[in-house]
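Internal tracking record. Fields below are filled automatically when a chain is submitted to the structure queue. Please do not edit lines marked as system-generated. If the sequence contains nonstandard residues, flag them in the REMARKS field before resubmitting.
Queue: standard
Priority: normal
Entity type: single polypeptide chain
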Amino acid sequence: MKLFSTCFLAIAALFAMGNTSVLAQDAAVDARLENEPFAVADMVIWGGTIYTAEDSGPTAEAVAVRDGRIIYVGPRLGAEAYVTPDTTVLSLEGTSLYPGFTDAHAHLSGIGARELTLNLEGVASLATLKQSLASYAGTNTDQPVVVGRGWIETHWPEGRFPSRWDLDDVVGDRPVILFRADGHAAVVNSAALAAAGISGATEAPFGGAIQKNALDEPTGILIDAAMGLVNSLIPAATREDFVEQLTVGGRVYSSYGWTGLHNMSVSWQEVDLLEMLSDRGDVNIRVYNSINPGDASDLFAGGVRASRNDRIITRAIKLYMDGALGSRGAALLDPYSDANTSGLILSKPEEVLPLLETALRQGIQINMHAIGDRGNRQLLDWFEQTFNTVPTIERAVATPRWRDEHTQIVHPDDIPRYADLGVIPSMQPSHAIGDLHFAADRLGEERLQGAYAWQSFLDTGVIIAGGSDAPVERGDPLIEFYAATARRDLSGFQGENWHPEEALTREEALKMFTLWPAFASFAEDEIGSIAVGKKADFTAFDVDLMTAPEADIPKGRAILTIVDGEIIYQAP
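SYSTEM-GENERATED OUTPUT FOLLOWS
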């Protein structure tokens, strides 16, 4: 991609075309500039296909920007009238430009922490996990507790969860705590169990499970709330730790092509730090915060807040209804097909319903995690009860745009309820292409109807806010786009009864990561599509998402990320 400042005139093109309509258009441009003497662009982008996510004009040849806003979208000839010697002109060199991609569900500090700690993402076996643990522990002997994240056992040749004894083989002199990729289970070694006082007689807390063997011994697997029994062993993150995590996470995400992220399960300390880091230019992507419920009183007291540059917005609360499917914590209406459990409910109505009512009255958005069909049904029931309790006249926002985060396994009878209630499904396509390898075992064939049912939801008239759930998944927008449109894993495998009819069109997938996350964060008038008046947020990839062969999509890379007309990432 070429970056240069120039005054570009298309005289040769005009003579070649010899077209009176073109001359008339040029005269009209001259007349407009005479009447609007300040219509000069800071930046113009052309030289490739521009996909706008606007139904009235889905493609364009050029876009012009001034003061961080889009002032022109259309043919290249019209954009040339905005160029002066001071204009930055970007040539796409045949690649493609899109509205800024937004990850509607991720964890920014976790993305940074993944880069800074023991990263078990992609370990292909239990043996490989043990090798990675041995290497990391050997080079970090000063760490009193070894912490890592990212393992998923469903594709391992060993065919089982790791255990405390597996970890003891590698590290026995200090606690080891390794979180599953989904963040809803952990395996710990014997030293960690002893330090936390966990034995065969220990009762699991509400919303959690301690796995035990036939001898009633803890195996080292702690699920959901039971992980809290060992969390106190992990040194608390310092302010400096959070600053590094958030800065690294923002840098990684801009290099992937994301211009924005909906940040889930955020502490109030992170909100303050993000605003500071954004205002001073250390975190440049947009961040829409959904805070932990323990900080709800601060949000209720102060209301919606923003950084000085308006890139960091905080107006939502993140709640949890159930656990995750992989660790069998997702709450199901009927028991799991491969285990004697129906999952875990993590919230109590007497604690959550009053919070929901206050949020509805004060215009605070609720984003609630729900994965299993029982968890999703209960979420809809609680939302509906709250909507019925608080009449529209008592609400700060008539249409609150509350969200169901994940919406993975939904009983078909409940799918129409989302449109009826105005609840937004916030879904992560990469979960479907990872879970396809074990979901049939967990659910059985019948419950795959209603699993990751993207097209069924769209058919009812709702929109889907698309995300990645990084660091649970990689967080690559091209993988997410591919997953949404191909509904296959990265090798091309789909499997039987994985309902290919639920895949999205490419046009739908584009909106899933641009316009619809904007709507889900009350920002559709400002971002989400390439239209005059909107903020100049753009993403360019070296692969054309709308025309490239399916298998080529995840092989691409981001080449340009722009926020408010500012280049925050440009590939070498």
